[in-house]
């Protein structure tokens, strides 16, 4: 007996077609057409057919079916979504926009519709409408349960869990801007800057109106010193249809990093004109005015900040750190009261507390009360030391490795190589050693441009060291020896190219005043063999004590303990002495006390080493109105004075740990101890 197979029901046929849609759209179309022969115009079958046609590359036929469906099923989100997609594929922006606008009205909480609408609006030249659609998409995503779960994991410190959730989500939907931004944050929190930037860049490319992602990208670019790109994104952010003071603030921060202080000051003034009750903005304005040498205005700005927020430690320190300003008894009373008010919140307000201690230290120093000054400096340093990482033993080992590596024989064995550009003049040493004075003297010469403390050489050095730390090379010497002439040329050219953004004039030579570059004297010789290196050196007690009582905005982690800074000075002297013995005359040393005693003779020696003719302007460096960003910015706008040569002496009873750490370096100054 022959059994007749019963034809599948329309529901079964459609279910089979749905299952085949992704892998075999032509079979899905066949299933849909089978149903339509039985039930002409049946909407689910028409919808399956349209999607199959789209996947088969038959967009026009798909669009016709979807148009018909939308006329009768205009409130079905899936139909509008597909119509928007197909119209977009067919470059029919008006039809896509109409469908997606209808979709987002029906489902405002579905982020994907907003992002797709934004792309279509942008294609149609409606940039501001597109920006608003992106922002609506971001707002909708804030209620997405999957993203919320990943965000909670991030906030709880479960970075691996968040990473897995987001990777799985992006495997399904690779064009999800909020997921990409959050995935970038996970990478950033893990210290993986390259994937972090790549993911956030992708989020911004997909949704150019995603302001929070662009803001985060700017901050990542600033952290990696990619300043031109940061500026480009910060300028774009100013066009947002939803104005925010944060947009101007981040643009100003980029401009400050690039040395465009006047424009940054203008932005801060615009913000304060709208709302003068912003102590942080007053403080930022003060920083810029100080850099520009407009000291009276800087004082007004800092005082405006502390008047509005007396516990704002950094503003007090910024005021105290103006070396030519003295805080009075009323200021001391206000700061002591502020410090007392923070006594129950030290853990939460450490930044304010240690800044207030440093500020009180300076105020009591100005009042000639050495005991109270030292006590506050000591408390400020002790608190700051708990917040930073500095391993003096590990650092000393790194210095010893460099001493052992860069011998005259090793340099000779490496042969020719590196970038031959003679442009850079590296001014190295310790902070508070007179390096800003040297920079100001040199930058007063018509052939030499002053820039700032540039991080590029430190970044190159850290990147090379990471190859040892990650196990690619057994030790520092092996890694350095592996650098071919082409490698060294590439690294030198990278340095020249990355620092070009800081050069604002056509002067042939420029100064990099990052003091810590003394650690990379050998590397500089290998990758920039024609660069000049000037070692600015000051009496160890003067230099180290001055550095210890100076709070630095960033870096210089060795300065918050008298023993640490003494050991650092000793390591520095040892490495430079070893280099002098191997490559005599390569580094020119400026002894601060000699510069003070006979300025013209020392300036002539310095210019002879650089290879430029003497210029009288170098003796009137204090008339140079260039922007200066270091702690000595006011002092270098005055003629050389001798008052600070022995500023450490009133504090000598408490400097035993420093003297012990310095050891023979102290007795042998200005020479290095005999090896």
UniProtKB/TrEMBL annotation:
Keywords in alphabetical order: Hydrolase, Protease, TPR repeat, Transferase
UniProt cross-references to InterPro entries, sorted A to Z: P-loop_NTPase, TPR-like_helical_dom_sf, TPR_rpt, TPST-like
Alphabetical GO biological process terms: proteolysis
Keyword Nucleotide-binding: no
Transmembrane stretches, start-end: none
Chain positions of TPR repeats: 279-312
Pfam family, one: TPR_16
Origin superkingdom: Bacteria
GO molecular function per UniProt: peptidase activity; protein-tyrosine sulfotransferase activity
Keyword Protease: yes
Name by which UniProt lists this protein: Putative Zn-dependent protease
PANTHER family: PROTEIN-TYROSINE SULFOTRANSFERASE (PTHR12788:SF10), PROTEIN-TYROSINE SULFOTRANSFERASE 2 (PTHR12788)
Gene3D superfamilies per record: P-loop containing nucleotide triphosphate hydrolases (3.40.50.300), Tetratricopeptide repeat domain (1.25.40.10)
